[in-house]
Every structure is written in C-alpha cells, then in structure tokens.
Fold each of these.
Amino acid sequence: MRFLFVHQNFPGQFLHILRHLAASGEHELIFITQENANFISGVRKATYRGPSELNPSTHRDAQEFDQAMSRAQSVGQVASNLKTLGFQPDIIIGHQGWGEMLNLGDIWPDAPNLGYYEFYYNLKGFDVNFDPEFQTVPDALSRVRAKNAVNMLALDNPGQGITPTHFQRSTYPGWARERISILPEGVNLDICRPAPDAMDQIFQHGPLTVQPGEKLVTYVARDLEPYRGFHIIMRALPSLLRARPDVRVALVGSDGVSYGARLKESTWREHMLREVGPSLDLDRVHFCGRMDYADYLRLLQRSDAHVYLTYPFVASWSLREALAVGCAIVASDTAPVQEFVRHGQTGLLTPFLDPTALSMRIQEMLEDTDRAASLRLGARAYATKHLRMEDHLLGYTRLIDDLVPG
C-alpha cells in the first residue's frame, strides 16, 4: 500500500505505526512535515516550510488560524508535487490540529482520510479556568473559542477521526463524536518494564545520586509549567522534605512552555524557586532538565513514588510509561488521569489544587511499602491489559482495512 502521513513535527503521534509498517517492507511510506533531524528507516520525508512569525497586523484571535491556513497551503503545494511525480496514496493519515490536512482532499479526492483529533477547546468544564490561580480574563475567551476553527473545518471535511482516550473524545461536541473512534495508544512493554533490583543499586544521573535506602520521588513533564502541576508539586515539597529527611526529588522537564501562559521575565522554575526556594533543602531537589530515554526509564524504575499531575487536558505519554514500568503513582484526580489511574488499584489520586494533600499522599506511598508494592503490581497489570503495543497496532490496521477498499 501507499501511505501518506502528515504532521508538522515528524513523526508526531505516528511513530509506532510507522515503524510497524516500515518493518513489513511491503508499503510505500511518505511523510509530509517540516524539516527536522528525526529519521525512520523506510520512511521518506517530504518537507515544507512552516509559517512565518505571527503577523501583528492580523487580529489576535485569527493569528493561529492564519498560520494554519499557511500550513494548509504549503502542504498542498508539496502534495501537488508528489501527485505530479505519480504518487497516489491509498490512504492519508495525519494530525488535524495544525491545518495541514485541510486541502489534501482537493488534491486526492478519492483517498480515504484518517485524522488524529487531539483536543477540542471548551470555555467551561475542562482546562480553561480550571485553576483559580490562573483565570482567563473574559476578553481572552474569544481567542480560546477561535482555536477551534481548524477543528471545525476538519470535521466538515470527509474522513474518519481517531483519538486515544474517552476523555479526549468527550471534549468534542456531541454531533462530532460519531466521526471519532477511540484508538488507545500503546506502550512497548518489553522496554517499559519494572526493574526489581533498581532499588538495591546506586542511581546516578549527572549531579543526582540516590543511594540504596534513600527514597526517590520523581516528577516528569515535557516542560515545568502549571498545566502539568509544577507549581503544585513545588509547594508540596517543603513539608515533604521536612517530614522525610531520606527523600530526594527529581524533577524532569525543560524550562519551556508547551501549554498555557509564558512568564514575561522568568521561567516557571525560577518563579517557583523564588516563592518556595527558601523553604527547600535544595541539596535534595534536583532539576534534571530533559533526559535521554534510557536514563528516563531508569529513573522511573528507581522511583519510590512517581507524581503525575495535569489539568483536564491531554494526558502525557509519560503516564502510560510510568504505569508500564510499574511505578508507585500519585496522580491528580482530574478526568484524563482517572481514565488510567484507579485509586487504590493502580495508584493514589489526590486533589490537583491541594499541595498539602499531595505531600500527604506521597508520604503515605513512601511509608506503606506493602501498599506501594501492591499498587506497582496493579499499575503493571493495567498496562499489560490495556496498553499493549500489539493491540494499538492491531486497532490501527483494522481501521485502515475498513477505510481502504480491497
């Protein structure tokens, strides 16, 4: 078969299905994307130039839409070139959030379209104004509403949609959900697995050294920011460190901002250190930045309590990987997390907005080692049952078979 994939940051959410298809050696795989260094053997990249900087003369609510239309046009031009060269995809698979997929039906009107729908923005009930500390002013609500312009155009185009969780599908309007199938994302359970002897060994990563017998509390996010509860865990640390002199804390993530607001004059790490730093034993709090994947997995395997927090927003891949590793998870009681972490079975839930409760939950996990061991087994068992990569790939291939005639 001939596959066309589209995502501005190759390979995006399509890493595993691409590897699976490429490994068979039976398919032609072309991926339209912006230039980056990522590489998968057997996949040809066709690059396009991304949009320029935001145009200040464009209405603020239309700036993202303006960039999406620029992407749609650029991807359409690359697609037209591919068609001129004789490429005719049997199916087009891509992310619907960036605008790149919008014009491809004009070029290949007979090619089935399978679009990844990640999130539909709502003014109530989800991430907007969830955290009272960071309220969206009424004047900015129109910008949130306008973020759905590409979603709406994509839903008006022919094609089938996929999304990985019930929570993410629930963000879309009722009339749109019948167009969107749930395709759970998988984890490589052979790589993301428990390491029972990790607790008996010295863990070292840069300046972080954890001796056997010390307790390691871990937190992972792409970026250290409020959407992922960074401000909450930082406020929980003073009481945790006072109560447990044997605890070290590893905070993994960069100083960027993936979601929400960026501070004008500092990073969120610097901001929170100004607030709670004087109350912390900073010799036991380690900011690890980004870690390579092997070290990141070793960290999860060594963790005595792993904290995962998020607004009612898209759950991170790291949560799935922590379950697969068999971490003792302390997580926020928000809807996307509750789909994975069941209190007392696969982890402990705690109110997102309550740093004191988070500190107590972590201490509870550290003190009751028998319960922690049971939760580790529960987390791994959940991953084995629900997050198998083989099931993810089988679901993908079934959808493709349904969409491609013959």
Amino acid sequence: MRRYDLDWLRVIVFMLLIFYHVSMFFVAPDWEWHIKNNVTYEWIKYPMKFLNQWRLPILFVISGMGTSYALSKRSAGMFAWERIKRLLLPLIFGMLVIVPPQVYIEKLSKGLIKGSYFDFWPSQAFIGEYPEGNLSWHHLWFIPYLLLFSLVLIPVFIYLRKNPDCSILRLTKRICQSKWNLYWFIVPLYLIESFIEPFFEETHALIGDWFIIINSMTLFFYGFLLISVKETFWNTVEKYRRTYLYCGLTAFSILLFIITVFEDGYTRHFIEAFIYVASFWSWILTLFGYASKYLNKPSNLLNYCNQAVYPFYILHQTVTVILAYFVMHLEWGFSSKFIFLSAGTFLISWIIYEFFIRRWLLIRPLFGLQNTYKEKVTKPYNAVS
C-alpha cells in the first residue's frame, strides 16, 4: 500500500530546502556559500542548525523506503537501469546547464572573471574542478550519492526482499514494536559520528567523502529496513509521536547549550555526538509519526507537487543565486530580501516547470520525469525522483 505521508514529507522537506538555501545568503560568513548579502546575521545559524540536523537524514531514510517500493515491482537489472535514467541523466544535464550560472555569478561577484555569461559558457565553464576550476555539481551532490547507494546495495536489498523472515528483519520488527527500542538505531550513527566524522571533512565531492558516504548509506539502509516491517514501524511512531517530539526538543536544547557554553575537546566531542544523533533521530521519528497521523491521504495537490519536486530541486539554487546577485548590494532590510528571494525562487521555478519542463516530452527526462505527460499518483518515489 502506498504511503502518501512519505510523498508529503518529501515535498515539505524540499520546500524547506529552498528557504534553507535562501538563508545561506544571509548567514554569517563562517557558513560559506557561493555569494553573500552585504549584511550577514549570526542569529540565523540557530534555526538553520535545527533544520540542518534532520533535513538530509530524513531524505536518505525516505529514499531507502522508496527503494523498497521500486524493487517490489522490478528486477534488479530493471531497477538499476531506472535509477541510472532518473538520476544520472539529470545530474549530467544539471552539471552542463543548470549549475554553471551559479559558478559564473560567484566568480563574477568576487572579481575572479569578467565578461558576459556566454564568454564563460561553454568555453570556460568546464575547465578544472571547482572551486579552483569551474566544473561542479554544487547542490546536486545528493543525486550521485543516492545513485551510488541505490546500486551498491541492490544485492542486499534483493536478499531481504526474497527472505522476509530473515534474522535482520525479524530483529527490526521486534525493535519497532517498542517506542524506546527504536533508539537502538542511533548506536551505529553514534559510532560513525564519534569516530569517522572527525577524520573526514564533509566535501560532497563523493571521492574521499567517507563520513557522508557511510552515514548517509546507513540511513538509506535504515529506510529499507523500516518500510520492510510494514505497519509495525508506523503504528509505533504514530502512537508515540509526542514522546519523540519531547525527546527532540530536549536533545536539541541540550545540544545548543553544549555548543554555546563548552569549548571544543574530546569530552565535548563524544557527548555532543551522542546528543546530536539522538536529537536528529528523535525529529525523524517525530516527523514520521505526525505525517502518518495527519498526512497519509492522497490529493490532487500532492500529485502535482510530487511530480514538481524533483525539477524544483534541480532548478531552485540557480534561480536563488541569480536573484541574490541583483539584490546583494541593495540597501533593503533582511525581511524584504528574504521574501523577495523565497517568493522569486518559488515563482520562477514554477513557471519553468509548468510551462516548459512539465509540458515538453523531450525535456522531461532531463529533470528526472517520465517522458509522458500523463502523471500518475502511483509513481514509485525516492527522495528526489
């Protein structure tokens, strides 16, 4: 049975991503981004820290859940080919067409290049690797990671699909029957956060980005496990959603206290790592619980948004960066610029999607959509496709 709450969560989280990237334009310079407003703000860090702790983890969990649905209707070979088409093709197109304007504007704003965009693209756009060079996947980094996880874990997922009574699924089902046992899932996440994160800086470059690869693949695998035990997981998170909410509020409050009061060191690192994983896991369980209670229902709006979310993801940051370039030195206040960038990003992305991507069959595959205009509620979902 399809879970519409997963579709809603996917749409909501990617909608929040737009606000997050708009906020990156305003946040203090120690949070690096491609261009910055003429005035930056320290206070924005705190709502961004809250959002950042669970935003990507829940997307990887949802992706693992979507993989379970997709594999239930396809052979391993069909699934692999479908993932390549839906992920690799948009990634290549994005790197060739969507991302270069961001690189151009960043380097133009810093005085590193001169001339028009068409002096830059294509003659210079693909020379060297960003940031020294110009070739990059920027915000599309999520796509190659998702493709890697989908392909590498196929043998494991096929085994679990063919052996629904295997020991790992029986153990998962027992864990999911108790509200507190669900926190056993943070043990591997804590070990990864404690012993791998300090040695591998987050780069989103795929090669050598071991902390992000191991941590995200673990969450992706969790998604497949949790959806495989069917209603056991959903019944628990829905029933105890308020408990997880209180745990999330408490853990995040403690986390902020640790960050602001104590100096960095070994003791702080290991305590902070535990509170951090407990916090974001609590918020993931909270979101699943409330979504299961209130959002597990189909609608025409959901169907439309579910189709639009992947193209929006591909387009949005380029639109934001272009708009931000034209207002970065204006003497507008924070609210005016934030509303302008947020509304402008949504509106322009929607216009491009509605009147070009959605209606043109030859363009749809470049944005991860099926090359048919007929939209289906039953389309299998991953986090971005």
Amino acid sequence: MYKEYKPNMQPFKTPMPSQEPDVRNKNFKEVALGYTEEMAINEAKRCLGCPTKPCVAHCPVSINIPDFIHEVALGNFEKAYEIISESSSLPAVCGRVCPQENQCEGKCTRGIGIDKATGKKKEPVAIGRLERFVADYHNAHAHETNVEIKKNGHKVAIIGSGPSGLTCAGDLAKKGYDVTIFEALHLAGGVLVYGIPEFRLPKSIVQKEADGLTKLGVKVVTNMVIGKVLSIDELIDEYGFEAIFIGSGAGLPRFMGIKGENLKGVYSANEYLTRTNLMKAYLENSDTPIEKAKRVAVVGGGNVAMDAARCALRLGAEKVYIVYRRSLEELPARKEEVEHAMEEGIEFKLLNNPVEIIEDPETHLVSKLKIEKMELGEPDASGRRRPIGTNEFDYLDVDCIIISIGTSPNPLIKQTTKGLETNNHGCILTRNEFGLTSRDHVYAGGDAVTGAATVILAMGAGKQAAKAIDEELSK
C-alpha cells in the first residue's frame, strides 16, 4: 500500500457527472462530462497499489495502472500521463470506449466482495475514468513541444488508420521509422471516426491523437484504397516499403438473409453510423441524407447496436427498439452503454428474433418487423445459452430497421494480394502473436484479423506488430 496518503476505502466508484437522460437524448454532445481534479484524486486514492498488479496483466497494452493512479492521487497529473504514454498512444480514446469492466477493472481487488452496509457488490477502481481524466488534463494544459527523432532509414506502410494502425505507426515513428499511413476514407481514425458516435467519443479528440502522430513525422495519405488504387505488392516493389502492417478493420456488414432486407428504410449499422458520425448527417446543413424515421428497430445487442439506437433517438425518432434474441444477461454490449440506452428511453425487446420485414403495399417502404419469441436452451459454442424459437410471433410497427449483427473484413486486400491467407470469415490468418501473415514482411492486426472486437485489443495488436517489425528491420 502506498504511504503518502490515507487510502479512500469507499466501496463504490466516485460517480461520473453526465448530462441528464432527457437532455442528452436530444443532442450529440458528450454524455459523460468527466471528473474534476478533486473527484479524480478521491477516486485514485481507492487504489491499494497491489504488488501483484492484476489490472496490468489484463490490460492489452500493459499500462502500469497502479503507478499512474498513484500519481493522480498525489495530484501529479502530467507524471501520470507520462506513465500511461509509455504503453498507450490513445489514452483519451481508451478512457472513453474501452470495456474496462471486462479487462483491467474486472480484475481489480477493490471490486471483490459485498459491501455490508448496502448489500451491494463492491466496485473496482474507476481505471477508465481516471485514464480519461489524465488524458484530458494533459490535452488541456500541455504546451506544444517539438519532437526530434533521429530517422533510421527504414520505410514502413500502415494500411488503415484505426486504433491498430495508429498504435503501430506511433510506436514505429518513435523509433525513427519513416511511416506512411494509407487511409481509404477522407479522415484518419478508422472506426473511431465512422463508427463511434460523437456523444461517446468527440471527433476532436481523435483528430488530436492523429495530429500527434504527424508531429512524430508520420505521413497520412487519405482517400487511398489499398487493393484498388495501389496493391500491397506495389507498395513493396515500386515504393520501397520494407514492411507492411494491415490494420484495415472489419467494415463489411452482415445481414440476416430474411425477407424484406432489401426494402428502403433498412440500413446496416455500418452505413447508418458512417452517415451519422463521419458525414455528420445529424447537422441541419449536412449534405449527407439519412432516414429521419419515427419508429426504429435496431437488430443486435452489441455496442454498435447501442450506438445506432441512441443515434436514431437523437435524430428525432419517437420510438426506438433494441431487438435481441437472447436475454439481458447474454447481451454483449458494455453495461454502461446498456444503462445509458435504457435511461434515454430505448425499449429492449429481449428474447425476440426478427424473421421478416413487412412492406407497406402502397408506399413500398418498411412498415413492420415480424419477430419470433425465443427461449434459451443449453450454451452454444460462444458459451451463451442458445436461443430457440417458440413459433409465437409478434409485430413491431416501424419505418426504419438497422441491422447490427456483426461485420467482417473487406475482401479487397485478400483478393489483390497473392499468398495472403484468410479464414472462412475473411479474417487474415497470422503465424504468431506478433501478427506476421502468410506473406513475409506483411503483418496484420486488429479487426482485420479477429473480426469486430475492441479498440484496446486492436491497439495491443498494433503494438505487438510494431515490436516485431522493429526486430525484423533492425537486424
């Protein structure tokens, strides 16, 4: 235990200030408002500084969590930022969107046991909230400094500017590599800009992180579709890149294959969120059209489904449903996101599975969603109980349906790169934990390898690949 201060033995987290539900569900401003300095110090003092550091072992990028929190408790916020930055390139992002409850916070010793006074389960230290506070404090108070890095003469190409690509680029740039990121869209950030809504992750934060890389000397080439404009082989043979990292994500949406999915008013969550977030269709003067529906059904139970449902509400929908075929216990979305969605008035139609989208015979638009009531059987391969149809049906009156049942990698790079092996889902196969693919000098990580996963896992993959590329090229 640290001795510089008296530990705070409060069994529950310091509450996070946030917009009221009836206010925030009508705007795209950030929901959580962040800790004050006093709140952050108070929460940091809940950390016991465990010598075994179980939280660190379950952080995909191995941030020295007890040490940075210790510095927060002492009011040394910039020192805390330095500690985080040794391991993470995107602390302001991770502090907002990472599933800490399943990773670092899930192993925090302060979250073990029941509080006798209330009978409630004790809560872990709010590691994510503290990481966000430290990053925001640094961004608000840090002075611009010129970073001088000695170049080592080696060139590396990064395909995709999502969390894995940004992390890999940052780690290599700090070591002196000449790094170029090739991004298919017109802005850097990948899923951080097209997938995650402004109210969860302000795009100014993503831009600031990307700007930090350019200050390290990283070149960012936008509107460049690798596999279409240039191939991986051309990057190597004609442009002289000695290693490639593929961090192109998993942006190809999946559909259910049910009748009516091709009707007007049916979106993939990917399209709906891209129009809303990247193209800012929620603004009055936006040039990007989007369905301003009144009654919306979102099919799925992950974080993307929560994002789509909450966006629909903010775009003016009077009623928004989450339709999910399992129960609340099996819902894969973050607990915080589910709670926020419920607080904002979104209705959860659990143990229901869509079987048909009904067309209005006069307008030829979506008019109803036919759903089958389900019950849970034995666990399947995912470990969750298998949903079984009951042959009982109901109908939801809706004019817009958003399908959010997962994504897979775009096959473009696979189709244009000889010898690059993928699995049955289109995910790139790697030979080891460092992301080396079936092609020498070509590495991959993040959702392009795992399928849709978390920001922090993608960052961990980018970090591992950067280490391997450095070891290969510095021999």
Amino acid sequence: MKINVGVFFGGVSCEHEISCLSANQVMNALNRDKYNVIPVYISKNSDFYTGEALFDLANYADLDKLCTTCEKIVLYKDGNTVYLKAVNGMFKKAQNIDVAYLSMHGTNGEDGAIQGMMEMLKLPYTSSDVLGSAVGQDKAVMKQIFECEGIPMVDHFYFYCHDFDKDVEGYKKKAKKIGYPLICKPANLGSSVGIEIIHNEDEFVDKIHEAMQYDFKLVIERMITNLKEVNISVMGSIFEARTSAIEEVMKNDELLSYKDKYLGGSKSGKTKMPSKPVKGSKGMASTSRKVPADITEKQQKLIEETALKIFKVLNASGVVRIDFMIDKDTEEVYANEINSIPGSLAFYLWKEKGIEFDEECDIMIDEALKRYRKKEKKTYSFDTNILKNYGRK
C-alpha cells in the first residue's frame, strides 16, 4: 500500500517562493510507486490549497491565479487519521495523509509554527521538532546555546529593535569593541534576506534601521574580511546522525546574497539537479560551489564533529545544513548557523556521498515515521480526569 505524503510549502515568509522551489524538487523526486504525493500549498494569506496545478512550477508565475485553479482546503483529525477536506465540498471524499513532508523555509516554516500544528494533529513530519526548529531559527538564542556548549563563534551581540534608539551610543560602543566591519542580521530570517554590512560607525545607525524592517530582533557580529564559507549537511535524529560532504560556497559580492543563492548570480560551477528537474530556477542548486571544499584534514574533522554536536544540542531531526566560516588569515573555524529545512534540502551535498535525491526523500520520510513511533511510546497525558468531582461537596 502506498504512503500518502502531504508536501507542505509556501507560507507567510520572505522565503515563500524559495519554499515553492524546494517543494517542487521534492514532489518531482518522490517515488510514485511508493508514495501518493499530495501538494499542500499555503498562500501568503495563510490559506491552504491543493491541486494538480501545484506540480508545475510554471504555474507559480502568478500566485493569485494559481490559487483560483486549486481547491481551498482545511485539515482535520478524525480518530488517529488526519484528512484534507475541500472548503467548498468539491472533493468526493476527504483525502487522508500519513506523513507531512515539510518543505517550508523561514517564518512559520522553520520556526516551530508548522511543526506545532503537526504535533497537535499527531501527524508525523519531516523536520526538527518545535524546540529544535524554534531555536535554530532564532540566531540570537542559537548563539546563546552555542556559547554554553563551547561551540566557536565570532564575537557578537544582539538587541531588540525597540530598544535600539533608547541607547544608540551604548550599542555603538559595543560595535566599536568588536571592530568594524560588522554584519547585521535579522535574528529570524534566512536566505540572506535583510542582512546588512556595516563598514564603519558612520553607517551604523542607517544600516540598523534598514534591517529593522525585517524583524524585531537583530544580531550584530564581527565580519571576517578574508572569509571562506563552508557548509555541511547532517541527516538523522538525536539517536543517530551522519554528515555529508562539505562544500565551499563561492560568492560574487562581499556577502552571499539572495541573488547568488536563488537567481543564479554566478555562471560557473553550477550543480546538476536531481534526475527529474523542475522548470525555471534551480534554487540553492544554482549557487556556485566547490565540492569537496578546499580545507585541511584537521578543519574537515573539526567541522564534522562540531556539526554533529550542534545537531544533537539543538535537538535537530531530518536533514539540516550547518554553515561555517573560516578566517583564511588565522585558519580558525567558526560555526555560523543551522538551517533546519535547507534550500533544495542540500541534496547536492548528499549526492557526493552516493545518496541520490529520491533516496534522501525516502530516508526523511522513514525517519519521520520512526520518530513518531518513538513519541507514541511516551506518556504525555493521563486517562484520569481530576475535574470530575469539581464543584461537588
């Protein structure tokens, strides 16, 4: 019997379109002999849709029109089964889902929101759980945990945006202590959205205000000027995990931009797509990279060991990508951040280890089901009702 896989994507996020790219890669890669693939598109208005049109990336050029060609749906639980049901009743019968394949990035996708929904529905899902997702999405909280665990990071500080104008001079002093240039990041976004480079004190206030439009909290960190960016993926769970090949990411500007990542900023070194490619942009696969990375054996071992430690410390699951920075002047390695649902699901790093994209999808679904079964063996509630005698004398 085939497994019904609901592929969830879209959402209220700056990375909405990137999520659509990743989801189409997944839907093309899933083995139709093993799975019934059910697209579940979440619009920028947080409405849920399904339909055949969602399988063709060419239809996403006009998102409003796309929604009109699909069926608006709701999710509900009946007994131990989760169903999709059309709002207008066009379905002949409700469609059940056995497992949710989460292909959402950024807000509501990687921050624990959609994971919390899956937990409430008791629907197995492919990603880190609520805590692992939330901590991985919030760079400020993540760095605090890294610090407690002795994971190497560049010097940094963070603040809430509403506090900034109350103590501009105080934050300038903190910045001066670290030293310019600095990187300013929204704490809860990805895909290089909202990131600013602050070259000197004259730019400090204006750049901070630019970044404020994207988040309530910002992270300021020392910028490594002679930088080598390397990424590694980890797959599995807290019980057992493995590492992928390590890539060295190339960039066209001072910072690996949204354009570099998703709009094909470089013409060289592009990674090939899975055996069933999608039309149009190749997502993270279009980024110029060198695999394996040009690093020493000592650096490789440190990155692999640190990545596995981060994966376990943050209670991660499924497939994640962990980004590192190497200061080429000192050869020091620093952990940067974790992406709990990475663009293109980092398939290009697993391919180097002999794992094709369809196999990676199989592993993630299997891992989601195994993790669900482990949870079902734990006690989360009691059959007794302490309120049954409430009000009685």
